[in-house]
Amino acid sequence: MRYRVDELAARSGLSVDTVRFYQTRGLLAQPEREGRVAWYSEAHLAQIERIRDLKSKGFTLDFIKRLLWGGLDPVDEALVAAVAGEVPGKSSRDDGGLTLEQLAERTGVSPALLQAIEREGLLPSASDGAYSMQDAQAVEAGLALLETGLPLSELLGLARRHDEAMQAIAEQAVDMFVRFVRDPIRASGATQDEAAERLVEAFRKMLPATTTLVAQHFRRQLLNVAQARIEREGIDEDLLPVSPPAGPDL
């Protein structure tokens, strides 16, 4: 099959301008030309579907271009695919993603407030309209905290400080994975397919173990700090139950 640019746009569900934009950015191969007419093929349609899939997982156009044109070797490409499949907020609508309006309806939070939370970096940017179910659960958890009486400004400030601290920890964890897992596997002499399989398997074992370890440590620290604060400041005697009056001796 051959398509003119308007036919390719209609088949792919994109606008003509978007198709030409992808071509200008080097994401699409050049079409065949017969005089002044540009002809696109099924290969171009497959490229557009690949771009759409990678965009739905949160990858930038520059990174997608590297993937499409062999900027990563098969070993790292396999790891990229595994990471994309595990990151909350990088699922497409077909995988259960929510639009902004659907997220607002599910959580009861106005779209304007959700966008404000997103601008603070507390929700992943979903300009393509694909929030995940994990995003909805996070918003619902935030609502539960607000219902206990925590001010929104204080909660947002705490979340920002936590995000900054966890960013440094995440970078250190990734650096450890690269130095002690990825690089040794790549240097082991295994074939690309074997190395890719071992690398993805290691990642899928380490991710839940690491997140469980970090989450459990934070929970323990939170409880320890709470206990120490209570012990240090004591308990308001006005909140203690009143002892019943002593009865007559029998």
How are the elements arranged and paired?
Layout: E1 2-3, H1 5-12, H2 16-24, E2 32-34, E3 37-41, H3 42-56, H4 61-68, H5 74-86, H6 100-107, H7 111-119, H8 133-147, H9 152-186, H10 192-233
Antiparallel strand pairs: 1-3, 2-3
Textual characterization of the structure:
- The protein has 250 residues and is mostly helical.
- It has helices at 5-12, 16-24, 42-56, 61-68, 74-86, 100-107, 111-119, 133-147, 152-186, 192-233; strands at residues 2-3, 32-34, 37-41.
- Strand 2 (32-34) and strand 3 (37-41) form a beta hairpin.
- The longest helix is centred in the last third of the chain and has 42 residues, at 192-233.
- It is flat.
Give the class from helix and strand content and strand pairing. mainly alpha
- Tally of distinct domains: 2
Could you tell me the number of beta strands? 3
Principal-axes geometry comes out as flat
- Rg calculated over all Cα atoms: 26 Å
Number of helices: 10
- Provide the spatial order of strands within the biggest beta sheet: 1-3-2
Ends distance: 104 Å
Model regions low in confidence, pLDDT < 50 over at least 5 residues: 91-95
Main sheet attributes: strand count, strand direction, barrel closure? 3 strands, antiparallel
Amount of beta strand: under 5%
- Average residue pLDDT: 83
Helical percentage: 55-70%
User: Secondary-structure element sequence?
Assistant: EHHEEHHHHHHHH
Task: List the keywords.
3 strands, flat, 3-stranded antiparallel β-sheet, 65% helix, 250 residues, Multidrug-efflux Transporter Regulator, Chain: A, Domain 2
A few lines on this structure:
The protein has 250 residues and is mainly α.
